[in-house]
Design a protein that fits this description.
single chain; alpha+beta; At1g16640 B3 domain; 2 domains; seven-stranded mixed β-sheet; 8 helices; globular
């Protein structure tokens, strides 16, 4: 591979530059995994290894050296088998909109392959690789693999899920996922055998170190203790919609419109957030037992008493059950009393789900997620 063929002195410089950059992580993040900005990694790669920087060019490579095109990826290591974005096709959606899943994937694959071949012809490239930087607590790891064309004739195991918003497939070499909503192609990267492992000591207070370097002093203050960073917490993503039927929608008589259900008189703010059954199966200890109360911290830092309830613990509700609706329907969505929430309203705000973080058995936090987030979470975590 490319990296191992570079002079030792250049590799050493590269590792030192990555390590020193990672040591400043607390400037940007509270995570115990080093924080790296992708553009910075591209610049460090080119500076240390003497590659031409193509990061600002509209092509499939971020760097070029020795007629090798390099796509540079940086991401959290996770389980070593994560899906990562490799291409976006927002400007090409008219070419596949309305097509069958198979036709859509064939079009996307063709576009992806054409971009790679165009990059090779344009820059005189003989071969393409991915250079991957992954991050986990206290370490930066380096991986490389070939950037293969998708083998159109070998596409198999095509599966459509999430109301036709996620299409997964394989080509005999790699596993891919296409998010129709985001017009984005993802590839699963297997990162279990690093070619380099770098220890990173994250500075507790990088501002003090920078002050020493630039010759100024920071006035001492008493800082409050920090809680566990959200990045290090167990989390689940819950949909605010339903895929039952032929169209993604917010049900008119359940979920966020539970107040509109038939039967007994209901408070106009009565709602619940649905918890798909597979989430309980996948993470059986994430939520407390049914009807056991816990604190739920909202994005504005206010607290609700919450619980999971209904059959199969399928609902996240507040106690009283109107409190969640007062926040979500009235404060956040700004809806009038007994005004139905629709999926089109969510789309206009670019949200379709919420993320719930677990701090302890009786303390959780919640926030909103952008369109497509639940689809990606389900595709990554659901046990099929």
């Amino acid at each position: 591979m490319f990296y191992t063929n570079q002079p030792a002195i250049n590799r050493t410089s590269y590792k030192q530059m990555l390590s020193s950059t990672g040591s400043l992580s607390n400037l940007f993040s509270d995570s115990d995994s080093p924080f790296l900005v992708s553009r910075n990694v591209e610049n460090v790669f080119c500076e240390a290894l003497g590659a031409e920087n193509l990061g600002r060019s509209d092509c499939s490579a971020d760097a070029l050296k020795e007629r090798i095109g390099i796509g540079i990826k940086t991401f959290l290591h996770g389980n070593g088998k994560t899906l990562q974005k490799v291409a976006e096709f927002n400007k090409n959606s008219d070419l596949y909109r309305g097509k069958s899943p198979k036709e859509l994937i064939n079009t996307v694959v063709s576009l992806r392959n054409e971009r790679i071949e165009f990059t090779k012809r344009t820059y005189g490239i003989d071969s393409m690789i991915y250079h991957c930087i992954t991050r986990k607590p206290g370490k930066i790891l380096i991986f490389e693999e070939t950037m293969d064309l998708v083998q159109t004739s070998s596409i198999a195991k095509l599966k459509v899920s999430n109301n036709r918003n996620i299409i997964t497939f394989e080509d005999g070499k790699h596993e891919y996922s296409f998010n129709v909503t985001k017009s984005t192609l993802y590839k699963r990267f297997i990162t279990d055998e690093p070619i380099e492992e770098i220890d990173v000591e994250i500075l507790e207070n990088p501002y003090q170190e920078l002050a020493k370097f630039f010759g100024f002093k920071i006035a001492p203050i008493q800082l409050p203790s920090l809680s566990t960073p959200l990045e290090n917490l167990e989390r689940v993503i819950l949909p605010l919609f339903s895929d039952r039927g032929n169209k993604r929608h917010v049900p008119v008589k359940s979920g966020l419109n539970q107040w509109n259900a038939a039967g007994r008189p209901r408070n106009a703010n009565e709602i619940y957030i649905p918890i798909p059954k597979w989430i309980h199966h996948n993470s059986p200890k994430f939520f407390p037992d049914r009807d056991q109360p816990f604190q739920l911290r909202l994005p504005d830092k206010s607290l609700l008493s919450a619980k999971v309830c209904q059959d199969n613990s399928k609902a996240l509700m507040s106690n009283p059950n109107s409190a969640l609706g007062e926040w979500l329907l009235r404060q956040v969505m700004n809806l009038g009393e007994r005004e139905l929430l629709t999926y089109e309203m969510l789309k206009r705000l670019n949200i379709d789900s919420v993320i719930v973080y677990k701090h302890s058995e009786d303390h959780y936090t919640i926030d909103f997620c952008s369109l497509g987030s639940f689809d990606e979470f389900q595709n990554e975590h659901s046990k099929h």
